[in-house]
Amino acid sequence: MSAGPYNYSYIFKYIIIGDMGVGKSCLLHQFTEKKFMADCPHTIGVEFGTRIIEVSGQKIKLQIWDTAGQERFRAVTRSYYRGAAGALMVYDITRRSTYNHLSSWLTDTRNLTNPSTVIFLIGNKCDLDAQRDVTYEEASKFAEENGLMFVEASAKTGDNVEEAFLETAKKIYQSIQDGRLDLNAAESGVQHKPSQPGRNNLSNDQQGNKDNCAC
Amino acid sequence: MACFWFYQNEIKLEIPSSEDIGNVTFYKIQVHVSGIEWVVLHRYSEFYDLHYHLVLDHGVSKDILPSKKVIRNKCPEFIERRRKALEEYIQKIFVFLKQTMPKILVDFLCFNVYDSFFLLQDLSSRCFLEADIVLSTNKSYYFSTLEVFNSKAFQLHAISQFLKKTQPLLNNAESRFDMSPVLDLCSQLNVLRVQGSSGTYLKSNIILNKLSFELSAFKNLNILYINNVLFDIIFSLGNIRDTLLELHVANTNTTKVCQILQCDVIHKYNLESSQKWTALEVLDLSNNNLTEIDTTITLVPNLKKLILNDNKISTISNLSSLSNLSYLSLSNNLITICNDLHLKLGNILTLNLSQNNIVTCKGFSKLYSLENLDLSSNKITEIDEIKHIGGLPCLENFILTGNSVAATVDYRIKVLEFFKERAKFICLDNEKPSQAELDKVSVLQALSIIKEGKTPKLTVNTAN
After folding, report:
1. Does residue A214 carry a pLDDT above 60?
2. How far is A44 from chain B (nearest CA, A)?
3. CATH number at residue B379
């Protein structure tokens, strides 16, 4: 099959959450455009990004909801937890308050997503090690206590950004393989696209059927 | 509505006139029960049958009914004489029988239709016979309950009346009266339709929509349809706030959402958590006179589907906190401006704004979650407006017919062009793009890229 932009077998929905100014939009921009956005404006409501990645030979399209951190948009952004397969929870390692608020973000996430949602904790701005306010150890302990995956990243240098998004996808894919995540559930945040829709729909479908039979 | 037991001594029966219908003389019996009155038409032979049974079973003396006459029974003097005699007769037997009120007399005077007490009695015996069938089919065939128990506001009023004041029970063996079958059925019912009316009820002066009722007898209601009922007559909702999954309200002339969701509350807009409709997921308030979506909508925190077609709403408001809302329909309203919809609506999948006055699509540009968008029959004239829709990454169905923009040359291709490489996934006006259209779209895209002075990237999407 040709490698067109619509050749993927899964869609995973992500949501990025965290306090205002921790660098959520920059992380998304770094991930989708591989560039650092220096003067990133405040997000109004919600932004959106997408990228196709590969996990275990499967092409996966990530649809990423980048939410506004400002309190006044909280009502609107809450609705995007619905149907998210992955949640990236971001804090700023140079501002302790953003770390302290994590528990409230975590409560929201646990309440509004389904149990199979993968939550990934990202300590952003790790390039500013000199101004560090939150140690790696305590954040990693917090993550461990709450069963989260954790990494320190930098949207500016691009360190660990790719890894965070990919590791989350791997974990979700693992859940699908284990059967823990029900693909047919409406709010699972994962859509399966068995074949490329469009012109060669028919032939692909037949192929797909054959594959199924072989298993 | 009449209540026999409270006004037993004020009931008046009259036969003021007669009527000729299809060459048969009918006598018009007028029943007055303290302000309420209704009319029953009976011909002589029906009086005769009634009399026969009353004589047989209830010890009415045989000779009080005016006698039969076979010939010349159409002359006006005779009819007038008979009318008077029948009036005397019906008054006499009523005085004699009103303590026992045999079923046959109740039916003859239509007390079972207009009087809350006898109506309930009727309902009760029907429930006793049919309730098990209704409830057992209910479990397997969900919708059969709709047909079987199309409750009238009238009957609900009667039930409410009963719950309010315990009425004296008849001790007579024949008309033993027991409310338990009715309450039993009500408490187990899942689906209820309430049909009101602003006119008078049948041949009486009872106005249905002035009869207040309540819903506390319904303990397990999941779906409630209310049609043509004034909401101020519902004085209690019981526990349906916790059980109801779907609420459909139509033709009520209500202008405010609070009149429906807070119909049992005196101080509207005073939102308290006890007033929350915790289970409600579908709210259909189509065909009312709503002018705005007021803050009371937040009393339905788990709402998934909101249908407000055919109202007079001009702005989308107060919906941002409904985080489960994924379907919103506002067809045939007065919406002109939709700015920054992504701040008013969260993760919404389907949005129907057909038959409004929308001119610009700018406000839709960040509604990234949208999968189905219906903007048919609006006032969109400029093809450039569609560029705001073109960036929506999840859109699959887009309807734009009935706008003047749809009449422009090469309309479909121009619209599809805005969707760039996603064009082939867009079902425009319920039609998937044809290959010819897609080819034209990719040619246009290539041209515009060249115009911008860049070399076209050779991604082979459509050709192969």
Report:
1. no
2. 8
3. 3.80.10.10
